[in-house]
Amino acid sequence: MNTRFSTLVAGIALAAVTTFATAHESHAPKAGTATLAPEQKAWGIAGKASAVKRTIDIAMADDMTFTPSVLEVREGDTIRLRLKNRGKDLHELVLGTAAVIEDHAAMMKKHPGMEHDEPWMAHVQPGKTGELIWTFNRAGDFDFACLVKDHYELGMAGRVRVLAAAAPTR
Ligand SMILES: [Cu+2]
Fold it and tell me: What separation in Å is there between the alpha carbon of 31 and the centre of ligand 1?
């Protein structure tokens, strides 16, 4: 086999591989490219890291506390909730209205092993730090809670007050 011929063979092989890859790609589901628009909830909408205006540190502990447990933010602000789990147990922070959290807690009780992951919640392993970026674009009083096991019944909850954007700032 002369050099020129072997180069040609290699070229054909490469072309075949490329063609196959392209064809394969075009038949693959476009899961990675389809991005769902964030869903507006009564308590806000998923926020972008680039829009974060303020970071609030919250500690989670095995005595079923969030510290602080009362937050005050301004309507329209994108907030990073930086969650530090100081305990030995898994904890989470689920944002919502009181009614939604109650419903969710009841569902978790029925199906304890149920996987749930939404932009308005974050699960934090013991000793780890997690975060949740949320745009509070609806004024009002909202709740957050940990729905791991019986933590919510044991009082692991807090409140977010979202002040109306039109209200005076001082
Ligand atoms: Cu918890």
Answer: 33
**Residue 35: predicted pLDDT:** 63
Q: Cβ distance 92 to 123 under 8 Å?
A: yes
Amino acid at the residue 110 = K
CATH superfamily of 42-163: Cupredoxins -  blue copper proteins (2.60.40.420)
Whether residue 25 is predicted with pLDDT greater than 80 in this model: the reply is no
Q: What is the pLDDT of residue 139?
A: 97
| Residue list, CB under 5 A from ion ligand 1 | 91, 146, 148, 151, 156
Q: Where are the domains of the chain?
A: 42-163
- Which positions ≥6 away from 97 have C-beta within 8 Å? 42, 43, 142, 143
| pLDDT above 90 as % of the chain | 66
Please give the distance, rounded to the nearest whole angstrom, from the Cα atom of residue 56 to the centre of ligand 1: 18
Residue 20 pLDDT greater than 50, yes or no = no
